[in-house]
Amino acid sequence: MTIYQPLPEHPKLDPQDLGLLSAVAQGHARLTPEQSLDLLTSAPLHTLGRFADARCRELHGDHLRSYIIDRNINYTNICTAKCIFCAFKRKGDEHDAYTLSHEALYEKVQELSDIGGTQILMQGGMNPDLPLDWYLELLNGLRERFPHVNVHGFSPPELIEFVNFFDPPGATLIDKVRWVLIKLKDAGMGSLPGGGGEIFAPAVRTKIGMGKCDMEAWLQVMYAAHSLGMFTSASMMYGHIEGYADRIHHMRLVREWQDKAIRDFGTGELPHDIAFDPTIKKPETGGHYLGFHAWPFQPDHTALGRLPTWPTPEDKAQGLPFPGDVVAKLDGSGTKDEDPLFGRRLRFAGATEYLRTQAVSRLMLDNIYTIGSSWVTMGPHIGQTALFYGANDMGSVMMEENVVSSAGTTYCLDEAVLCNLIRTAGFTPAQRDSKYDIIRTHTSPDSPDLKVTDWSEHRTKRLHIQSAEESAAEQLGTAELTVGASDN
Ligand code: SF4
What's the 79 CA to ligand 1 centre distance in angstroms? Predict the structure, then answer.
């Protein structure tokens, strides 16, 4: 067994030094947080794209880019948290509050199975009325009926609330989390999504995610899952009140905890140490983060989205910097008192900002195999462009999405369109499973995109902004299938 060693850093080098960036792209050097911040804020966009793409090709080759067919099932919208960026949650007494029955959930998974889907992303609000047995019966029922469908379920904030709701045995919070995780895993849960990552820095997190677990708890839950050999994802939602340094601090923690997971539970080999070959399955490497997914905040119907956008005319007149940047520190130690306007101004992230952030994530997260494109929030063409800014995976052809689409416009693609986007970017589309193993490579004439004769049937749709009522009606199983993605 090899002893895992993180890549060497070269803190004295200029981050835009082409030699350093080449070494990073080849997997010989690690960027420091300071260098990463400089790249995020100052490097030309094409430099970021060039080296993030080179890094991606180093890991994934020039040939295949992947996607998965899964379904995002939000089993309840009742939630104890009060995230101000959320338009999805209900307290429980509203007319559109819901919890899906097991039978309704099985029907949804059957529909997924019928189109060749291999995974459900199952997350909910944090509903205090559901006992542990409700989850265990559901998972057992899913495994019995759909053994070929992976349950990628229950994000760290849900796990922390499960501890509060179920009062499991254990001396520490993490002992209790492990107890619950073992129960869920034994009942059939396969992997954990990275939902609720948002921004880790406490100053930001306490402002936007009231009632949701803190950074330490989020990371510890994932570490507990890794200790049980489970695979997880990490996520980040940015483009609101955070500073640039907060994004880097967030990625830094993901990278550090990934180092820890590989060192403590792995075999010393990363998945990407294995030459990319779709015909072989990757060896078991111990629990760790398989992918990183980041997307910009969607503001509609949210309290957070009603904040003024920086700079307001007064901010401009006074030459005020963005408050998030005043507060943000690379070690996460910033406090809200450092700027009276902190948490009162928004800075949205558009397409360029999205591509920059994703490219830096690919370069900085040298120990994470997959970087996912977020076409759901950015649209199909920016999602496609993201394949040249470090993304190797187009995420999900999903049959529904509720949380992000409750907060803004999301996009709707079917498998043929997704394959077409990958192919017209110059790659071969390949369907993957939940472990990023390739299960179908689309080279034959009856590939989902190549067999299409009339593209008018496959137009990209822009999902309208759903009202809560529409969202709930759709959840209750009546509406036509919607396609969207928030792979986290
Ligand atoms: S984002 Fe999730 S945890 Fe926060 S209020 Fe909405 S449903 Fe609850």
Answer: 6
